[in-house]
Amino acid sequence: MNLLYDFPTELSQELFSTVFASPDVRIERIVSHGHASPPGFWYDQDEAEWVMVLSGAARLQIEGAESAIELRPGDHVNIPAHQRHRVEWTTPGEPTVWLAVFHGASVAPEDSPSTPDVT
Amino acid sequence: MNLLYDFPTELSQELFSTVFASPDVRIERIVSHGHASPPGFWYDQDEAEWVMVLSGAARLQIEGAESAIELRPGDHVNIPAHQRHRVEWTTPGEPTVWLAVFHGASVAPEDSPSTPDVT
């Protein structure tokens, strides 16, 4: 799957595709087409997320930050686990393609140990 | 640092920049400008590497594979640890920008345990 070109031209919802997954990392391609997070909605994730815009344009709001982060192709940001954030805007004129690398807590979340206790 | 635009226009060698690093993942931006691996040279890495071409074009040879993999922007491949590979060609007419996500053995290589034995 080519990450920049292989997706439907019409999308009523954001499209999430897992590109690669291993025990320590998960890579997703996300395609937005003018989509934004619903008003008042915040992502609050167990995993950290390094995210980059591949095409299009977006504004990412980090909770507590004075202003949103403008992201154009090649721009990137790491969002620590449980750092609340939302997508304020993506450009309506073309698809915005994100590459997201989830890492960290994915390996062994506190509530689900990866190795059982041996007694 | 914008990954697509922030680099010198003239590069005598490939340019490697660490974009993000954590205990479980390391993200690098690599810029090639017509560079290829020296004849007979093979990369043999302790870490697995998921790699994507962001701009330009490249041919990646995996040892034992019949033909090289053509990579254009949006194309990607995961190279397991110790899978020998080389860059056969990158386009001379423009920079080829790679995004590489190193993962796996980076966390705890077999020869360097991440936690000391307690005796």
Distance between the termini of chain A: 46 Å
Order of helices and strands of chain A: EEEEEEEE
Task: Assign the structural class of chain A, choosing from mainly alpha, mainly beta, alpha/beta, alpha+beta, or little secondary structure.
Answer: mainly beta
Radius of gyration of chain A: 16 Å
Which percent range fits the helix content of chain A?
under 10%
Kindly estimate the percentage of residues of chain A that lie in beta strands according to DSSP.
Answer: 35-45%
| Bulk shape of chain A | globular
Major sheet attributes of chain A: 5 strands, antiparallel
**DSSP helical segment count of chain A:** 0
User: How many individual β-strands of chain A?
Assistant: 8
Average pLDDT confidence of chain A is: 89
Order of strands across the widest beta sheet of chain A?
Answer: 1-2-8-3-6
Largest interface: A-B, 26 and 26 residues
Regions with little confidence, pLDDT below 50 for 5+ residues of chain A: 106-119
Quaternary organisation: homodimer
